[in-house]
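quick q for whoever's on today - can somebody do inverse folding on this one?? i tried earlier but teh output was garbage lol. tokens:
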């Protein structure tokens, strides 16, 4: 007799975690999903660290009590590097975090020049620098922080894309050509950024590998809760906003592309 379908909670500051949800849902189509976007506090980089940790623990704790997930995916680099340790200590449920994919990036780089593109909070955190010290493997690793790209990605989903020039300006520092070596790998250290991947590729001054951790996160999820019991879709996939907002028609259309019905979006403040 097959086991009951698990419930997986996917959490992010906004809608960037949809890039992670998409991979997990493909690996476990039989699971039930709750996607929780903490848009009431977006962007996280504007909050002091102590206040942000307190908020993340509160929001995820409340969601855990309400939805009783079998596993929680923190699909946010900032939240993971800041609060994952506290989440695991406080709540008795498996957590899968999202951290900059520096180890695989440095392992695959041919030129040995890698860029980590993240939010200002992620690239400035000691956690990220410790990953570089441990896994650089002789690579030169450049850190590029953007305070605008996550909002650009949210605008893209909402049907209001920013101009190419604005995107190009944000990614330009990723491309370094010095001493006969130029960047060949860029780590997307914010789950919002893969939403803009097609534009990054088109606007890049030369081709690079854009490293998206979503597939690796999905593999970790299946390691913890097992492979799909059925190819049939789960009973429900709900998308909730902590602001309680009603998505615009354009955003509803984008959400439908990820399998969320318009009526499923929207939730009270948590």
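ok took a stab at it. sequence:
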């Amino acid at each position: 007799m097959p086991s009951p379908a698990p419930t997986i909670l996917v959490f992010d500051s906004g809608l960037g975690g949809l890039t992670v949800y998409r991979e997990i849902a493909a690996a476990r189509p039989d699971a039930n999903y709750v996607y929780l976007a903490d848009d009431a506090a977006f962007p996280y980089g504007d909050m002091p660290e102590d206040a942000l940790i307190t908020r993340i623990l509160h929001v995820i704790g409340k969601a855990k009590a309400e939805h009783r997930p079998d596993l929680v995916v923190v699909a946010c680099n900032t939240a993971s590097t800041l609060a994952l340790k506290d989440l695991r200590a406080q709540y008795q449920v498996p957590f899968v975090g999202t951290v900059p994919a520096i180890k695989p990036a440095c392992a695959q780089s041919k030129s040995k020049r890698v860029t980590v593109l993240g939010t200002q909070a992620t690239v400035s955190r000691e956690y990220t620098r410790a990953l570089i010290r441990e896994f650089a493997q002789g690579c030169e690793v450049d850190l590029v922080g953007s305070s605008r790209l996550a909002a650009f990605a949210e605008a893209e989903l909402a049907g209001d894309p920013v101009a190419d020039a604005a995107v190009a300006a944000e990614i330009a520092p990723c491309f370094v050509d010095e001493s006969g070596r130029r960047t060949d790998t860029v780590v997307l250290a914010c789950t919002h950024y893969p939403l803009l991947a097609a534009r990054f590729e088109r606007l890049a001054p030369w081709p690079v590998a854009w490293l998206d951790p979503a597939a690796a996160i999905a593999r970790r999820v299946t390691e913890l809760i097992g492979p799909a019991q059925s190819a049939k879709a789960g009973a429900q996939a709900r998308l909730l906003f902590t602001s309680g907002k009603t998505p615009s028609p354009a955003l509803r259309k984008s959400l439908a592309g990820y399998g969320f019905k318009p009526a499923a979006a929207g939730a009270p403040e948590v």
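fwiw The two ends are 37 Å apart (CA to CA). also Residues 262-270 have pLDDT under 50 and may be disordered. so keep that in mind when u check it
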